[in-house]
Amino acid sequence: MDHHDMPGLGRKVSRFGAGCWTIGGPAVNNGTPIGWDGVDEDAAYAGLVRAHELGVTVFDTADVYGLGRSERLIGRLLRETTRNNLVISSKVGYFAGTARHPYLPSQIHRQFATTLDNLGTGYLDLYHLHSSDFGDRDTYLQPTIDSVVQLRDRGLIHAIGMRTPHRFALEWADRPSHPHAAETRRFLHLLRSVRPDVLTVRHNLMSPRYSPGETDIFAFARAEGIGVMIKQVLGQGLLLGTRQTGSERTFSASDHRSGKPVDADLLRLLGNAVNQIGRRFGAARQDLARAAVQYALHDAPKAVALIGFRDASQISTTLARANEPITDGDMDFLHAVMSPVREKMTDSQPGTNAHRKN
After folding, report:
1. What does the CA dihedral 296, 170, 143, 124 come to, rounded to 10 degrees?
2. What φ, ψ does residue 200 adopt, rounded to 5°?
3. N or C: which terminus of the chain has fewer CB atoms within 10 Å of its end residue's CB?
4. Greater confidence, 165 or 243?
5. Strand 16-19 to strand 11-14: parallel, antiparallel, or no bridges (unpaired)?
6. Which is nearest to 134 in space by CA: 112, 103, 109?
């Protein structure tokens, strides 16, 4: 597996990381389903072991993934391998417990201590602020910054992370009429306040494209010297053809998909696009995964693509051909094939018609 120096971390990391949300299993946080059905703990652990065997050195989790189960599974792995060779990332900011707010400083320190205990480690390589909700009038923003900086100064964390909006171009902040202007300004304000070392970005074949002259999140991060981790590169399995029209599953009340039915027309368009991609790249899961992963990394060669999985077979299949580059012609093909899907997704987003991009 390829390894490279990642901005913000100051060390070499694997090009692909293990995204460990899925292995946490079903969970509910503050009445909201946030988990995944059908996760077997032993199979999930075997997936972690297989990822490590394949050369993955980045393992990304959160306190809220399975309400600690994901962290504890990684803790099992850390007991069986060399900790210094791995980059362990966790997050805080969604789980309040009995505190007034997830970012109450005492809650941050409690959650951090629990995270270290779950993982069986004395430090984190990367600690992410998982939410952008810092209370009324950002009451907890500066106390949160002070808390994580204190942890960094004590050597308990090595880098600070932050998530980005799903849609971002730097220039939108100066266009008051743009539908994402306020969100962009909000993100820039938080970024200037927190000064993160690493950003986590949702980016895949279904993500919007940008106009010439617009600075997307990848160009912005490069200019700022900030590292990037890319999540949902497989579109939660949609880009592998795992969900087809007419075969919709029923999810439990602890699965985040239970309240997010996928539009049948979107599934039809997506199924057609995946079939076309399969004819060009190969229809097997590893072939479709190669196209999706390489697309996601095309504009961010120094980023880490986080790969979700439930077991050893899934992580092996996804990574089987993920390192094989695709051509500029392949990129043009993928842009064209996915255009109807993006159009449909744009139309389904209220207030975003003015931002439709080709």
Report:
1. 20
2. -105, 130
3. C
4. 165
5. unpaired
6. 103
In this structure, what token pair is assigned to residue 2?
């390829």
Instruction: Answer yes or no: are the C-beta atoms of 298 and 285 closer than 8 Å.
Output: no
Name residue 255's beta-bridge partners.
35
Rounded to 5 degrees, φ, ψ at 116 are -60, -40
For 37, 45, 115, 237, 302, the CA distances from 71, given in Å and listed in that order, are 17, 11, 7, 22, 26
C-alpha span between 67 and 203 (Å, rounded): 25
Regarding pTM above 0.85, the answer is yes
Report the 10 Å Cβ neighbour count for 337.
19
| Measured distance CA(184)–CA(200) in Å, rounded | 15
Pairing of strands 3-6, 11-14: antiparallel
Mean pLDDT in residue range 111-122 = 98
Q: Which amino acid is at 201?
A: V
Residue type present at position 42: D
Bridge partners (DSSP) listed for residue 91: 128
Q: Tell me the pLDDT tens digit for each residue of 277-328.
A: 999 999 999 999 999 999 999 989 899 999 999 999 999 999 999 999 999 9
CA angle 198, 34, 192 (to 5 degrees): 25
Distance of CA 87 to the CA centre of its chain: 15
Question: Is the C-alpha dihedral spanning 135, 138, 144, 146 positive or negative?
Answer: negative
Measured CA to CA, the distance from residue 172 to residue 228 in angstroms comes to 21
- Rounded Cα distance, 103 and 144, in Å: 6
Task: Take residue 227 and report the two structure tokens written for it.
Answer: 């590292």
**What pLDDT score was predicted for residue 244?**
63
